[in-house]
Structures are given as C-alpha cells and as structure tokens.
Specification:
Largest sheet of chain A: 7 strands, mixed
Order of helices and strands of chain A: HEHEHEHEHEHEHEHEHEEHEEHEEE
Oligomer: heterodimer
Distance between the termini of chain A: 60 Å
Mean pLDDT of chain A: 87
Strand content of chain A: 15-25%
Low-confidence stretches of chain B: none
Distance between the termini of chain B: 63 Å
Structural class of chain A: alpha/beta
Structural class of chain B: mainly alpha
Order of helices and strands of chain B: HHHHHHHHHHHHH
Largest interface: A-B, 53 and 53 residues
Strand content of chain B: under 5%
Helix content of chain A: 25-40%
Number of strands of chain A: 15
Chain lengths: 395, 328
C-alpha cells in the first residue's frame, strides 16, 4: 500500500509539473462569450490608453537573444512610449507555425486584445482565418505578404528594409575579406525563401562593392533557429575555406563557431560582439519599436493602420550595431557611413543594375545599367529571390 | 566543392557524442529488461539541471572555478536525469506499470520540465536568458592541452571537448562491465530471464533499479552535452526545445548497435556523420532526404539482424516485460 501511495505521489508530481509547464506562456485568458468580444471601436474615436490591450504572438521566446528578443525590445519601446501597464500586453511565446497559432490568436481575442501582432512567416494563414471571425480586432503580421493585398481591413503586414542594413554589413565583411586576402565568404541561411535570399544577396553585393573578387557560399539549415545546426553549418563553411561568414539565423552559434576557428563573422538581430569578441565585426538589426509605436499609436488616435508598412535606414527602422573597431579592417567605418548616406539619398538602391540572376522557378533577372530591383517598394515582404553570379548555394 | 573528409570526420564525432551518451545509457537500462523510451525526457532534465547547476554556482561564487563548475554541471545533470529514471523505475519495476506508456510519459514530462525551468530561470535574470560565463564555456569547449597542438593527429584526435573522451570512457567501462564482471553477467541474466536470475539468488529488483537509474544519469550527460557543447560555444545557453529529437535517435541507435557498447561507438559516429553529411557532401538532393538516412540505416540493420538470427544480437529476452515474482 505504501508503495502505491508513493507511486501515486510521484505520478502526481509529474502531472502537476506538466500542468505548470502547459500553463506557461498562456497568459491570462479568461474565456468570455465571443459575442461580447471587446472590440476596437468602429468609430474613429480610438481606444483609450487604459482600455487598450495588445496581444503578441512570438514564434520563440525572448531569451533567444535573437529574433524574438528583438521583437520584445520593440514592444517594450512601444509600451514605454504610451505608458501601458504590464497587464495590458499579453505575450504568447513559442507559438509554432501550426494550429497552435489559431488557438493562441483566439485566446488573445477572448482576453480582450484589440490589436494583435504575429512575428513568424507561417503564422499568417492562421491569422487571416481568425481575423475573418473578428472584424473589429486589428491583426498585424511581420514578414508576410497576404494581408498587404487582401480585401480585409483588419489585417496588416509590416516588415523593414533590412536588406539595406545587410548591404552595409556586407561592406564590413568585404573589407575584412580583402584584408585577410580570402575571397570566399560564407553564409548560414535559414530557409530558401525570398526574405533570406534577398538578405544574403544584399550582403554579398555590399561585400562585392568593396572587394570585387569576392564570392559567396550559402548553406541552408532549414530551421529559423537551431543553434546546433547553425554551428554545424558555420563549421562546414569554414572547413570549406570561408574566411568571413554571416547569417540569417537566430542564434549566436555562427559567431562563436567563427571565433573558435579564427574566422570572422557578421551578425543579425543582436549585437554578437560579447559572444565572439575576436570574430564578430558588426550586426544588422531591426528596430521593431518604430512599427509598434506607429501601429499602437494609430489605435489610440483611432486612425487606420496601413495595410502594408515598410521602413528602412532612413526612418531608423533598421540600423547597425556598433562596429567592432578592434578587428574591423581600416576604413570600414568611413566606407559604411559613406554607403549609408548614399542609400538614404537614393543613390544606392542595393539591387542596382547591371545585375543578372535566376530564381527557383527558372525566371531570369536582367537589370541594365541604371535600372534597379524595387525591393520592398510595392509590398513590405522581400521578393528578391534570384541567385546571382558569384553566389553558390550548396545543397 | 571538394569534400573535406577531415572536417567531416571531426564534425561527425562532435555530432555523435550526445547520441553516444544517450545510446549507452539506454543500453545499460535495456540490459536489465527495462525498455525506457524516456531518453529524450531524461536528456532534457539532465541538460537543464546541469546548466542550472553551473549557472547558480557562477552567480554565487565570487571567483568561479572552471573545474568546480564543470563537475557541478555534470553532477546535477546526472542526478536530475537519474531522478527521472527513478520515477520510471518505481512505476514500472515496483508498480509494474506498462513500460512503453511510462517511458512516453517520461519523455513528455522531461521535455516540459526542461523547457519550463529553462524559461523560468532565464526570465528570472536581467538578461532574460540562462547562460553560463566564459569560464565554464571554456572548460567545456577546449581540447587536450599540449596534445591538441600536435600536427594532424592533434587536431584529429585530441582537439575535442572533454565530454567526448568521457563518452568514450563510459563506453569502454560498460563493455568491460558487461563481459568481464560478475555483476555484468548477473545483469545480463536479469534482462534475459529475471525468474532464473531470481532463483540463482540475484536481487532482480536491485539490479533493475540500479541499471535504470544509472542509465538515465548517463542519458542526462548527453543532454548536458547538447546544452554545453553542441552549439560550439554558444554553449551554456538554454535554447527552447534544444534536444530536438536526439533522444529518439538514441533509442533507434540502441537497435542499430544491437545492445553492444562497442557497436554503439560506431553507430553514433555513423549517425553523427549522416546528420552533418549534407553540409560536406552536397549531392543536390533535398535536405529532408538526408534526414531520413539514419532511419533507413536503422531499418537496414534490423533487417540484417533478423535475417542472420545471431543469438548474441537479439534484444534481452524479457525486454519490455514487468517481472512479478509470484508468477514464476
């Protein structure tokens, strides 16, 4: 009998802990009949700051020190700007690109959110479906493209011209590659999507602008965030002779791998110098706070949120983390400043002709001198998906 | 791109090491007749506990010592995972619950346990993520001093982190234990036929408990490896869902290795190599195909083993069955 009680206690401990785990991240969802859904007023009067509730759906969690961290930083900027209390912002973390996203969104609506942000590409199909059921709630989606052109007024897309910042970091990489005399750049890429291809092409073009001999090798992890895979890919690139690597992936693994191999690295999302002081040159970063302040500001004013939103270097929505002057090649800071001014003035469009390439569908790109690819101008989501000469995708 | 075999071999060893811990722990468990499918869960428990051990030690010590930090991490990882195995043992050995169901429950429990505490401890800090300092990172990510600087062999044999050598040592000790000691033979008897072992005066319950808990602890070291080493020096940070199915691959590897620690060495190297192969041997096929290779290899081994019907290569006869003395 004693054994049974003990066993039941053990089993009970397991269940309780599980319940605790299941509870984490699921906010304060008090179910209320959906008929009485607290909705954003249809009149342009706006929502008062005290009544405002903001929902945030994150594909990961803040402690990734990368992509999600960057979004949370932006949300906090917005929170400070409007003086919102902590319980006015409800986070749903580790929401994957599956039916769990649907549940998370409905819970946020039930909890009274008038505006909801989602941050992962695969969230959008679920968001669009849920949005149809709650026309009075505003749904905003980062990196997507459906909402930008659909007929719903309550779905919105937002993204930044991160390719501009990547072009600038490419300059730092190109100058470093030139200094160490290694023409081969490497790139740890997440998935073969336009967002990623646009990013690494911009990075490569930046490097090439200062080091015309440079070539680049790209390998995909097929995951947005997987430290082990990112380290393995970075190692493989360095083993194959790459001297400077960059990444479109969420962790600092490529930085630390470069560090332990004596190679150099350009980061994304977070300043990675503390993780790899002898390898990380600079990082391209997004300031999501610019958008969050804008969108929530619209709610308070009662103004309509743009169907599609995209800002870049000029507006401060993308920027570079501080340059690691101890290891950067001489003249890097000046070269970056120079190019930055030219991007802001419109002299450089990043994807400037002459430029050729082919995408996965076999479509060819052929830009003449003076022409440029209008990235993120018609829609915020990146659309440049051509592989250009000089870049080798290994698979 | 020409193939860099040296780089691939080294990457394979690093990728195979956490699998080796998992497979060795599970072999020890299964030798006693307990089929513990909770390897993934125990790896999570070990990983988060080991990281937390180092993390809190560094927070509390004014001048943290690398060796103490590493030992604490290993101790916490081992004990926490062994505790997971202990829960399993009570349920399956003493209460004779279904082993498959209990093992699956342990996987779900351990996964939640790891992610919950990983996140909770992270959120309790200012930086919002649980990470250890450079001292601990360095001790987990450096090769053998002096020897690693030898030309060629230094890089190939002595440049790995100490956990790799620990895994090799565990494999060696286990191989010796199974075939050269009385206790090893007794354990063998318990796994094959507990009733016979019982009649011969072997304490079946004690053998089952000990081997399951020790095996669980070894799996926990695999979890610690994933947390501290796999990401080559990002190391020492809790990443959500970081085990990512490695525990399940370890369970498959036990079959691949046909319950032999020596073949577990080969198996984990092969599986490690297959997991990183697409970065070194580009064949121009979709990446998902590469991910299938380890499982195809397992199926092939299963077919080969069942065709050959060699008695040494069969699973312990009582594997998966609860032993009830009164039913002899």
């Amino acid at each position: 009998m004693k054994k049974r009680i003990f066993g039941m206690l053990l089993a009970g401990t397991m269940m309780l802990s599980l319940a605790a785990c299941g509870g984490s991240g699921s906010g304060s969802a008090t179910p209320s009949p959906s008929t009485s859904t607290p909705a954003a007023s249809e009149s342009p009067a706006g929502v008062s700051k005290d009544d405002l509730k903001v929902g945030v759906v994150l594909v990961g969690e803040e402690n990734d020190n990368g992509y999600n961290y960057n979004h949370v930083v932006g949300i906090k900027e917005m929170q400070e700007e409007y003086g919102l209390k902590d319980d006015q912002i409800i986070y749903k973390t580790n929401v994957h690109e599956d039916a769990g996203c649907d549940t998370a969104l409905r819970e946020l609506v039930e909890a009274g959110c008038q505006i909801i942000f989602c941050n992962s590409f695969g969230h959008e199909p679920y968001m669009v479906e849920v949005a149809a059921d709650y026309p009075n709630v505003q749904f905003c989606h980062a990196t997507g493209y459906i909402s930008a052109s659909d007929d719903k007024d309550n779905t919105h897309n937002y993204f930044t011209s991160i390719f501009q910042a990547r072009y600038l970091t490419g300059i730092a990489a190109g100058l470093k590659a030139k200094e160490i005399g290694n023409t081969k750049l490497g790139y740890v890429a997440a998935k073969p999507f336009a967002e990623v291809i646009s990013g690494y092409t911009a990075f490569y073009l930046g490097a090439k602008s200062v080091y015309p001999d440079a070539t680049m090798e790209v390998m995909y992890t097929n995951e947005w965030s997987d430290a082990t895979l990112e380290a393995q890919v970075a190692q493989a690139l360095i083993d194959d002779g790459c001297g400077v690597i960059s990444q479109h992936s969420d962790t600092t693994a490529p930085a630390t791998t470069a560090e332990s191999n004596g190679a150099f690295q350009v980061g994304y999302n977070a300043d990675m110098i503390s993780a790899a002081p002898h390898a990380s040159l600079v990082s391209a970063r997004v300031d999501w706070g610019v958008y969050y302040k804008y969108a929530v500001g619209c709610m308070i004013k009662g103004a309509a949120i743009a169907q599609d939103w995209c800002q870049g270097l000029k507006e401060g929505a993308v920027y570079l983390s501080p340059l690691n002057t101890d290891i950067a090649a001489p003249g890097t800071a000046d070269a970056i400043e120079d190019a930055k001014a030219k991007i802001i003035s419109g002299e450089i469009h990043v994807f400037d002709g002459p430029l050729t390439g082919t995408n996965a569908d076999g479509e060819a790109l052929d830009l003449k001198q003076g022409e440029y690819y209008h990235e993120s101008e018609e829609a915020s989501a990146p659309s440049f998906d051509y592989i250009i000469p000089g870049i080798t995708v290994v698979q | 791109m020409s193939i860099n075999f040296m780089g691939m071999l080294m990457a394979a060893v690093l990728a195979g090491a956490p699998l080796l811990f998992g497979v060795l722990g599970e072999i020890l468990t299964e030798k006693s007749g307990n089929l513990n499918l909770g390897v993934e869960g125990m790896m999570f428990m070990g990983g988060v506990a080991g990281l937390a051990g180092s993390f809190y030690y560094e927070q509390s010590a004014a001048d943290p010592s690398a060796v103490v930090s590493a030992l604490l991490a290993m101790g916490c990882a081992f004990l926490c995972a062994a505790f997971g195995a202990f829960i399993y043992s009570v349920l399956t050995i003493t209460l004779r619950a279904n082993q498959n169901v209990t093992g699956l429950a342990l996987t779900i429990f351990g996964t939640g346990f790891g992610n919950f505490f990983g996140e909770a401890i992270g959120n309790s800090t200012a930086s919002h993520y649980m990470a250890v300092g450079d001292v601990t990172k360095a001790v987990f990510n450096s090769g053998i001093p002096v020897l690693r600087d030898l030309p060629v062999v230094g890089q190939l044999l002595f440049s790995y982190n100490f956990m790799v050598y620990l895994a090799l040592a565990v494999a060696g000790v286990m191989a010796w234990f199974f075939s050269r000691t009385r206790a090893g033979l007794n354990l063998h008897a318990v796994g094959e036929s507990p009733a016979t072992a019982d009649a011969a005066g072997i304490n079946v319950t004690r053998y089952k408990y000990l081997s399951t808990c020790l095996g669980g602890g070894i799996c926990g070291l695999g979890g610690l490896y994933v947390v501290m080493n796999s990401a080559s020096g990002v190391g020492g940070v809790w990443v959500y869902n970081c085990m990512n199915g490695k525990g399940w691959i370890a369970v498959a590897l036990v079959i691949f290795a046909t319950w032999s620690p020596a073949r577990a060495l080969l198996g984990s190297l092969v599986f490690g190599a297959l997991s990183i192969m697409r970065f070194y041997v580009p064949l121009g096929i979709p990446a998902q195909i590469y991910d299938i290779f380890p499982y195809i290899a397992t199926v092939m081994v299963l077919i080969a083993v069942s065709l050959r019907k060699k008695r040494e290569n069969q699973p312990p006869e009582s594997l998966g069955l609860a032993y009830f003395r009164e039913e002899r």
